[in-house]
Amino acid sequence: MRLVYLVRHGETAAKGNGSFCVCREDIPLSRRGRKQARVLAEWYREKDRGRVFSSPLSRCAETAAIMTGDKKQVRMDPELTEINGGDWEGRSFEEIRACYPDLYEQRGRCLGAVAPPGGESFLQGGARLRSAIEKLLSQTEGDLVLVTHSGAARGLICMLLNWDPAHIMDIPLACGTVSRLQAEAGSLSADFSHVGIRPAVCPGRAECFRLWDRFQVPQLVREHQQAVAELAGMWADRLAEAGLPIDRELTYEAAFLHDIARTKPDHATQGGRILRGEGYDRLAQIVAAHHRLSPGEESRLTEDSLVFLADKCVEGSQMVSLEERFRASMGKCSAPEAVWSHQNQYRQAEAVAHCLESVLGKEGCRPAADG
């Protein structure tokens, strides 16, 4: 079996902030895009990833050069380029809708399968990319790293996963992410758990703040998340000192972002989807579980259970007891299913707290007194 890594180029200074059709227009990396390429370089150096091929467009070529540290290692292949925007290339979507109302509406109903005049659909671009991969596999040995674009890559992954092309944009392929495909016996396959994943498990504080701004997290929610992160991070530090394999940064940043979708219905699930879309798979799992742990998770001390418990021990930005927190929130529950969910959360929180106290003791679970 051979592996094929599809690397989406780093972020660009997008024309019109996404209000224009930009496919093959040659736009260079932004400063943030170059930073993403440097993170990819750390991933690339971890082990021998195989030969590197790139789309000739500068956003891919620059990503590949930074990633490898030597542009001479990178072979350009025009078949890896972005889908062809045809007559829509470079035009605003407002203009396109006015000039092609019927086709625009048709494409809106099945985005992945409908091509602009003189251009390619996502699926056509994916088929071209698939042919390019098959050709490269036949000409080389070992694994391959292909620096390419989201349109063509989404088209290919859509086909491999039997994804509904009407919802092709739900395939998570943020800039600077990696999707791992498998090639065996002349066949390509994909696993969603390896699609659109960032090399770094955690985004870092600066990126967390950017995500807060991007998703318009209210100030009071930011203060709550920060307080939850401080508490969960403290527990993670103390558990690590006690010899438990807890990832402190993962715990802290999951708590720091756990309410990123707080203003939306079912905000835990929505927050998980946001972070999965950004390429942070493990972070997304923790955030999605901060309202309800998987059965049995409450009897283990993990990053998931620490964030779950810390959220229940903070009201606003103040630390409170579980009894206080759940007594205050019980009044919001009227429907029987809401009461059951509330009681289940309380039971799970008490179970996690018991596990934590069994390792750290009651005093060890409390923040150190000032002074």
List the helices and strands and how they pair.
Layout: E1 2-8, H1 31-45, E2 51-54, H2 58-68, E3 74-76, H3 93-99, H4 101-109, H5 122-139, E4 144-148, H6 150-160, E5 178-184, E6 187-190, H7 205-214, H8 219-241, H9 248-256, H10 267-277, H11 281-288, H12 303-312, E7 314-315, E8 318-319, H13 322-330, H14 336-364
Parallel strand pairs: 1-4, 2-3, 2-4
Antiparallel strand pairs: 1-5, 5-6, 7-8
Helix pairs in contact: 1-2, 3-4, 5-6, 8-9, 8-12, 9-11, 9-12, 10-11, 12-14, 13-14
Provide the CATH superfamily of the largest domain.
Answer: Phosphoglycerate mutase-like
Mean pLDDT figure = 93
**SS element count, helices:** 14
Number of strands: 8
**Main sheet: strand order:** 3-2-4-1-5-6
Major beta-sheet overview: 6 strands, mixed
Termini gap = 60 Å
- Domain count: 2
Strand content: 5-15%
Q: Helix- and strand-based class?
A: alpha/beta
Instruction: Enter the CATH topology name of the largest domain.
Output: Rossmann fold
Supply database-style keywords:
single chain, 371 residues, alpha/beta, Rossmann fold, Hypothetical protein af1432, 2 domains, 14 helices, PGM_Phosphatase, Histidine phosphatase family protein
Question: What does this 3D model show about the protein?
Answer:
This protein has 371 residues and is an alpha/beta fold. The protein folds into two domains: 2-194, 3-Layer(aba) Sandwich (Rossmann fold); 205-364, Hypothetical protein af1432 (Orthogonal Bundle), CATH 1.10.3210. Helices cover 49% and strands 9% of the residues. The strands form two sheets. A six-stranded mixed sheet has the order 3-2-4-1-5-6, with helices on both faces. It has a two-stranded antiparallel ribbon with strand order 7-8. A hairpin with a 2-residue loop joins strand 5 (178-184) and strand 6. The longest helix has 29 residues, at 336-364. The mean pLDDT is 93.
